[in-house]
Amino acid sequence: MKQMSEAVYSTILGGAVGDALGVPVEFRKRDTFKITDMIGYGTYDQPPGTWSDDTSMTLCLVETLIETEGDTRLLMQKFSNWESDGYLAPYNHCFDIGRTTMEAISSFREGKHPDECGGFREDDNGNGSLMRIAPVVFLTVGIEDFNLRLKLVEKFSKVTHAHARSILGCIIYIEILYQLYLGCEKNNVLFVVADIINSMINDKYEKEKPHYARILNGSICNLDIKDIRSSGYIVETLEALLWCLLKHDNFQDTVLEAVNLGYDTDTTGIVAGSMAGMYYGLGKKGIPEKWIKKLAKYKMIEKMCRKFADKIEIYT
Questions:
Q1: Could you tell me the residue range of the domain that residue 311 belongs to?
Q2: Is residue 205 part of a domain?
Q3: Which of 1, 61, 8, 2 lies closest to 312 in space, CA to CA?
């Protein structure tokens, strides 16, 4: 089992690094660019180290968990403040937001309860809750009952993405992070998680399992790059990050591979960065310090990580 403070730090900072690596080339086609270091400008004309909505919303969740036991109304208010006023954005303005997330924020502003704001249509299965949900793994530490872990993931996904497929994708992602935190080797983690998902998931999530078949049957490990897509669809984002994680043996190569897959580069970057950060930590194979230091407001993120780790350790 990893030390809580380092795990929080490397997971959140690793995600922010992956996000910032991807921001300049978001929406660009694969093989039309090559990212080897943290650069700037590009798609949004932002300076090097700029992170996107993915990290801003992750930090909104972290701050909510520091301040409360997970008040989803406060979380949605922070999301709303970020979209309108640039709260917890790198340069105090929101320059990117997904459709389903924007619709959820609009519903909240109209007075809907957070539990009723998330998109539940077939076309609401973007990666907008996957990209920000990594901090929830630290709430699951010490909870042996899988169904209780599931409920936590469900609670924080459905405020923006309420379709069962989106929630199941987040469940798989958090369960993998949880097993890595416990010390599971990355080459075994899919088999461990697949066994848990296949034995424990039923009712409304059962029919969504075939969409994640390449993850749950382990075939994702053996696919060629041409079979990996990195779109904004949650299934394809989750497949892409796991393909990258299983292909490489260090943080840097994992995250650069994820970003260089193209298309939704910031989100593939953040989820790959969070998972590789959890696994490799801050050591020789871990997150390059030079990339952390290039992040916009990195000291603010570090301080928030410390506060979050301190709070989590009280309850575990």
A1: 4-184+226-315
A2: no
A3: 8
Hey, how many other C-beta atoms are within 10 angstroms of the C-beta on 93?
Answer: 12
Residue labelled with tokens 């998972």: 275
C-alpha span between 261 and 30 (Å, rounded)? 5
Q: Give the tens place of pLDDT for each residue, 116-170.
A: 999 999 999 999 999 999 999 999 999 999 999 999 999 999 999 999 999 999 9
Look-up of token digits 């990258």: 244
CATH of the domain at 276: 1.10.4080.10
User: What are the structure tokens assigned to 169, written together?
Assistant: 């994708």
pTM (global) more than 0.90: yes
Inter-residue long-range contacts of 83-88, CB under 8 Å, 24+ positions, other chains counted: 87/56, 87/60, 88/56, 88/59, 88/60, 88/63
The residues with which 111 forms a beta bridge, in sequence order, are none
Split into its structural domains, the chain has a count of 1
The distance of Cα 102 from the centroid of its chain, to the nearest Å, equals 18
Give which of 58, 273, 278 is closest to 182, Cα–Cα. 278
Establish if 34 belongs to a structural domain.
yes
